[in-house]
Amino acid sequence: MENILVAGANGTTGKKIIALLNKSQHFNPIAMVRKEEQQAYFKNQNIQTVLGDLEADVTSVFTNPIDRVIFAAGSGGKNVLGVDQEGAKKLIDAAKKANVKKFVMLSSMGADKPEEATQLQEYLKAKHNADEYLKSSGLNYSIIRPGTLTNESQVEMIELAQNLNKHGEISRADVAQTLVQSLEDKTAPNATFEIIKGATSIQNALNKIS
């Protein structure tokens, strides 16, 4: 079993990621949370937690062995520079020092050209900078850029391309599934791609860029 650190585990998408990992025969989820009171939700399910604040020093979250990382954290617009950008960079640095095998980043559609956005430009610029930092880190990575997130049920069917050149929606459940399936070394190695709801199974879509 490999230990998977999930940054942003307490978020809506983060909890779905943890649930998928918890059912896996290969991965052991470790929920990274910012506050002690957030630990109970996971401890009640016998899921290991670690305290870590992306606005502070995060090296301690790698005290125990971590094999792979999923970054699904976000400030919700409250501190995009400190969390979405610099927090991500700090976790990438710490992951590199800890020799993690792969870093899977939850980004956002539009992060490739934030200057063209009419909304959320500051957020998209922060995500862009974090993505570029990961690309230059030397770590094996997958950067997933979903369209507008919804709370619809999982369908496990997506449309995937490096640039879809169109907007669309996708459920958080399908995003979580895509992130988890991207953890493998040979799945979308060092790849950046966009996803929306579509007609191809997640596995088949990922296989095309592996």
Characterise this structure:
- By secondary structure, the protein is an alpha/beta fold.
- It has a single domain, classed as Rossmann fold (3-Layer(aba) Sandwich), CATH 3.40.50.720.
- 31% of the residues lie in helices and 25% in strands.
- The protein has helices at residues 12-23, 39-43, 80-97, 121-135, 172-181, 202-207, and strands at 2-7, 27-33, 48-51, 68-71, 102-106, 141-146, 148-150, 157-161, 169-171, 191-197, 200-201.
- The protein has a nine-stranded mixed sheet with strand order 3-2-1-4-5-6-10-8-11, sandwiched between helices. A two-stranded parallel sheet has the order 7-9.
- Helix 1 links the parallel strand 1 and strand 2.
- The longest helix has 18 residues, at 80-97.
- It is globular.
- Residues 8-185 form the NAD(P)-binding domain.
- InterPro entries: NAD(P)-bd_dom (IPR016040), NAD(P)-bd_dom_sf (IPR036291).
Task: Provide key terms for this protein.
210 residues; Rossmann fold; nine-stranded mixed β-sheet; two-stranded parallel ribbon; 31% helix; globular; NAD(P)-bd_dom_sf; NAD(P)-bd_dom
